[in-house]
Amino acid sequence: MQLTKETELPEKFDSVIKPWFKTKMTSGFWTLADGTSLHYRYAHHSAAKSIIVISSGRVECAAKYAEIIYDLHQNGHSVFIHDHRGQGLSTRLDENPHWGYVEDFNQYVSDFGSMIDDVLLPMLNENYVKADHNATNTEALMLNHALPPLHLLCHSMGSAIGVLLVKARPELFAKAVFCSPMFGITPPLPPWIANFLVRLGVRFNKLRGKRTSYFFGQSDYSPTAFYKNRLMSSKLRYEIFRRTYAEQPELQLGGVTYEWLNASLIAMKEIREQASKIEQPCLVLYSGADTVVANEDIEQVISDFKHCESTLIPEALHELLFEKDKFRTPVLTKILSYFSP
After folding, report:
1. Is residue 302 part of a domain?
2. In this structure, what CATH number is given to the domain that contains residue 63?
């Protein structure tokens, strides 16, 4: 198994991973029916064990996942990722591009389905199923044995989107992995106060004819010093993340809005209530020192999933895929093992 080590990163990221990401991956934009343009990237592997489809977290984008995509590809997998609406290089939805906004999480889910149907599957048809030119719909492609299995890899908010997509379209993925899933969040205030403020803010914005505004205490993008961050304990990976966003300011996204929080609360409630209906095989990896998402909600959902394996990573922070090697290596080893035939 080939995984990038922290000791290699200072030289390897700039000399190998970054050029590979920019020159070896197919990239483009797909315009949806509502005019939203979504950015995507695809790394093809001619002898792929599987096609791994990534659903990233809030604030994240394809560029942040360069090291992860590279490692997955080096271990024999094709990889597809898109930037969710309102973040990364995809269309920003408001006059302030830093606002973290979505009206309804079902928009993310619908977008994701469209990216698979209209972008990914046609590419896979061209790359893997050239002999069967009549297989044009999703079901036909998925049933064609020439196509490697599709697997879903999600992080945080991307896990909430991923679960909702799996529930809506269980035929898409053979297996799913949810890392530090956003099945509940840890608010800075007591939950009842935070929920009250969210509902109040949404109502107030409607009354004054304003589409959205920042939740209390949120602001435009501002990089947090490493020692204050709650995301990862790897200083090297954190510096690469922040440097990437400094070099491409268009990737930057600020804090959450009342409307995004309201939509996320509705989505997480639906996930917790509907978890027992998810029959897809899945693996949940979550962090012992996470202060972003709520582990008690994750554990409730784990207990309700019908075919679920789970592992708690003690002492790890929220972003398992970007953590120190002592956390990241066993996490990626487990993911790759789970996705192997």
Report:
1. yes
2. 3.40.50.1820
| pLDDT tens-digit readout, 247-292 | 999 999 999 999 999 999 999 999 999 999 999 999 999 999 999 9
CA distance 260 to 102: 5
CA–CA gap between residue 169 and residue 112 (Å, rounded): 11
The DSSP output letter for 220 is S
Whether 3 maps to a domain, the answer reads: no
Is 210 within the bounds of a domain? Answer: no
Stated as kind and residue range, the H or E segment containing 154 is: strand 150-155
Domain that includes residue 249, residue range: 9-185+219-339
Decide if 58 contacts 157 (C-beta within 8 A). Answer: yes
205 lies in a domain?
no
* Dihedral over Cα of 331, 38, 173, 294: its sign: positive
Listing from the earlier edge strand, what are the strands of the sheet with 150-155?
26-31, 37-43, 77-82, 50-55, 150-155, 175-179, 282-287, 308-313
Compute the distance between CA of residue 211 and CA of residue 74 in angstroms, rounded to an integer.
44
Cα–Cα dist 237/327, whole Å: 13
- Residues 291-316 have pLDDT tens digits of 999 999 999 999 999 999 999 999 99
Residue 12 in tokens: 């390897």
Q: CA geometry: angle at 322 spanning 72 and 188, to 5°?
A: 140
Distance of CA 180 to CAs 77, 78, 302, Å?
A: 22, 23, 12
Structure confidence by residue, pLDDT tens digits, 130-142: 644 555 555 555 5
Helix then strand then coil, in percent of the chain rounded to 5, is 45, 15, 40
Provide the domain count of the chain: 1
pLDDT tens sequence across 61-108: 999 999 999 999 999 999 999 999 999 999 998 889 999 999 999 999
Residue with tokens 């942040």: 64
Buried b (16+ CB within 10 A) or exposed e, 230-242: ebbbbebbbebbe
